[in-house]
Design brief:
The complex is a heterodimer of chains A (143) and B (116).
Chain A: E1 3-9, H1 15-28, H2 33-55, E2 62-68, E3 72-79, H3 107-114, E4 117-122, E5 128-135
Antiparallel strand pairs in A: 1-2, 2-3, 3-5, 4-5
Chain B: E1 2-8, E2 11-20, H1 25-37, E3 42-53, H2 55-70, E4 74-78, H3 82-90, H4 93-96, E5 99-100, H5 103-108, H6 112-115
Parallel strand pairs in B: 2-3, 3-4, 4-5
Antiparallel strand pairs in B: 1-2
Helix pairs in contact in B: 1-2
Classes of the chains: A alpha+beta (143), B alpha/beta (116).
Chain lengths: 143, 116
């Protein structure tokens, strides 16, 4: 199934609503279980980053748009927090010993690992626009 | 998400179920921290009923690993589902933590005196 759906939320406490929205939309689109897990993970990490590091404690408006095509699912998150600079997010040192491993800092790494495309722009209206794309494997798609 | 503890000799089994995410991981960490502070340093997390974790869950696990190891103990993992294992692996946790297919094997790994 192809199509689009949109959800607007305001706080980190809306995470359950976001997760259900993504999972339900992916299921309707015929996405396989691995893709659904990857999209839930990438959307949660992105959403919690926006709420906790972008807006800070009080949260703010985030629009989640999901667009299903026959070969991919795209999720776009739009927010009005200060600009996010992906290049400035330090990569975690995965080879460090347990004593030296930092607690935290894995969210953006996981997003990039489980998505096939990740893009970010600050649009003309001053919104952060983060787009996550997961390709669907051919055998599992319903038309 | 639910969490509860069971004793097996000197080893404590932490049974977690449901989804560990940005909203529920704080409760996991505070329960684990309170348990470690109370002197339980040999922990096995039974993840068999955890269907999902994000990096928030990994923060709780790594904090607890550090706290137990500094006290001479450890937090070891059992029965991670394929999805949870994937998140652990992508984050480099499978090289710094000990993972087991079964809870009994994880308990036994602490040695014969611990699980007696």
């Amino acid at each position: 199934m192809t199509g689009s759906a949109e959800l607007q939320v305001l706080a980190l406490s809306d995470l359950d609503t976001v997760a259900r929205f993504v999972d339900f939309s992916c299921e309707r689109a015929g996405a396989d279980a691995d893709s659904r897990f990857a999209l839930r993970l990438a959307v949660e990490e992105s959403f919690s980053n926006i709420m906790q590091h972008g807006y800070g404690a009080d949260g703010g408006p985030v629009t989640v748009q999901l667009h299903a095509q026959h070969d991919r699912i795209s999720v776009t998150l739009r927010d009005r927090a200060p600009a996010f600079v992906p290049e400035q997010v330090p990569a975690p040192d995965l080879a460090a010993s347990w004593q030296q491993r930092k607690v935290g800092g894995l969210g953006w790494h996981l997003v990039r690992q489980v998505m096939d495309e990740v893009s970010y722009e600050r649009d003309a209206e001053g919104e952060n626009v983060l787009t996550l794309v997961k390709y669907l494997s051919g055998g599992t798609i319903r038309s | 998400m639910n969490i509860h503890f069971e004793s097996r000799g000197d080893v404590s089994i932490v049974i977690i179920s449901g989804s560990v995410d940005s909203l529920t991981a704080e409760a996991v960490l505070s329960e684990l921290t309170a348990y470690v502070v109370a002197g339980h340093l040999q922990l096995v997390a039974d993840l068999g009923a955890v269907d999902y974790t994000s990096s928030a869950g990994l923060r709780a696990l790594l904090s607890t690993v550090k706290a137990t190891r500094r006290g001479g103990g450890d937090l070891r993992l059992a029965r991670a589902s394929p999805n949870v294992f994937k998140v652990l692996e992508l984050s480099g946790f499978t090289t710094i933590m000990k993972l087991y297919d079964e809870v009994d094997a994880a308990v036994a790994s602490f040695g014969p005196s611990a699980s007696a």
